[in-house]
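Bench notes, bay 3.
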Amino acid sequence: MDVLIVLGVMILLAILVAVKVKPAYALIGVSIVVGFGLQMPWRALAEAIFLGFWSTLVSIGFVLLTGAWLGKLVEVSGATSIITRTLVRAFGESRVEWAVMLTGFLVGIPLFYNAGFVILIPLVFSISATLQIPVLRVGIPMAASLSVTHGFLPPHPAPTSIASIFQADLFTTLVYGLVIALPAAIVAGPLLARVLSGLAGPSPSTLSIPVEARQGSPATSFLVALLPVLIMTIGALVEWINWAEEWGRAFSWIGKPEVALTTSCIVAYGYSLRMGKSRHELMAGLKSATASIFSILAVILAGGVFKQVLVESGVADLVALRVGMLSLSPLVLAWLMAALIRVSVGSATVAALTAAGLVQSVAMTGSVPAELMVLAIGAGSLMFSHVNDTGFWMFKEYFNLTLRQTFLSWTLMETIVSLLGLLGVLALNKIL
């Protein structure tokens, strides 16, 4: 009955958005409806709403803001134009989506999805505006590459945490994850983008992208734009080798997304001044970036509230326990549990960690490699992202898509990544 209530609320949410109710208002409204529908005490519901809002704000609010600042500074300095011309020259206009996919993949390995998204979004719109091509032709490869790294590759939170729960080797998990992630990114990225490129043409962005030529070094431009990636990679490596000295702890702290992005903003500000930009122009750009990010952040925070109400109501555990009664391969069972929780709750990380706790005993039996169990859950946690996922709304708002267009692009892309991830895990299990 609880699952039916949640499904009904999902349909209600889709209807509200379809009739032009602002997504943030719709998400908060259905959060209250689902809470009372599942008979949550009003105090528990209020606490879930506050926790969902606050935890989402703390976890990604500052990252989104500093990422938007960095994107604006990189844009104003002319670095995005330089990077665009360099990539187009290297890959050619006919293969530019491959360049974006590879860039997103490299960025996504050490970088959280939200931070990587806001860092690369100016590049996506710059390429679309410069080459006059549909924005989804470059947007989908970028999002696909970031998504696969988020779901399959350490040091991202979910695969790293699950590897610890299952006592899986982190390096082996990373190697297997790369084997699965690259083909999934190719199919759900450049190949899918070619099919869906006409779904939405070049559209207004929250970030205005200059297309005129600018002077500057390509190497320096790439360094400024991708500096947070470099900093966080160093931090991740330090944590991986478990360097316990004071310098090691310092590098680990510097590698945190918030610190890395703040440092990168300072460097980008200095680079912009060096490129001849005035302080007045830079402050105006930062003000514009701050204003633009608040409308997107409101939707994401509301999505976090909706997710938290579903988690606190116990729906995720209920779904997983019912699926656990089925007789399936451990890998398929792990994927299915994570997938159903993902569809019910929305958060990939919550889905992954909840499924991991429920199948931990199966993973520890050694019937299948623990590393593959980690990746099976990671693949399931990406399945069919829809209106209860903050990533769904971020993609929709940034690319100015309708609800239908978002389902046909973002949701389809995530589903392809999830299914290909499962097939990759099963194939590796046969080979190993």
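Next record in the batch:
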Amino acid sequence: MTESMADRLKIASYGQGIPLVFIHGWGLNSAVWQPCLAALQESFQVITVDLPGFASNKAYQPEPYSLVAIADAIAHAVDKPAVYIGWSLGGLVASQITIMQPEKVLGLVTIASSPQFVERDNWPGIKENVLALFHQQLAEDTAKTISNFLKIQAMGSPNVRHDIKKIRDLVMQYEQPERQVLDDSLRLLETSNLTAQLQNISTPFLRLYGKLDGLVPKRVITLIDALVPNSQSHIFEQASHAPFISHQEEFLAILNKWLDEYINS
């Protein structure tokens, strides 16, 4: 993909120190990280990035809209070694950056993410017919589809209504993406499979999960334990798909402890 400097993916930066790059999940935008930023930017340079076609990067369209192209664009925009922190689809992107350009990654943190989101070849995940339904709904009513997806993400959380409202209020600060971008990025969730490459990751690697997550089944955790035995994992007992929203203090405590042990030391 060729580009001029004016076409570079936009990122936002706060604070100083070791860079932490936050990558959001499907259908949303970088505003979901706002509640966590104040606590982190006192000690780190916190960088947030909107995926291509979303929010501040709505006009940025890689060709093709692929995991590799997006990972490359983000690494290029950050342009320095950093800790990459990705939620859901963002975890796939962060993992792809780590696999492709390990010299640019100080550490990898995935939140409620999987190297393969779809249930296929004995790998647990989202049933293909569920994602097919989302594609169909996108064609009919984009806003309603995003709203339904928010409900699935918070399902199981003891504060489900509060969590949904909090996420919606944050992401609605920005203009919403076009249907085609939502369709293309949803296809990344359908088609991506990094299970084989995951075992090549040697950088410090933290995996965070919600025990009540309806999108990333618990069985995924033990499978990845076997693939990447040197990684660390933590399960938020009462959380669903967005533990950094529903359990912000616990999330920040776990993240800071891991950063102190594996990155700051």
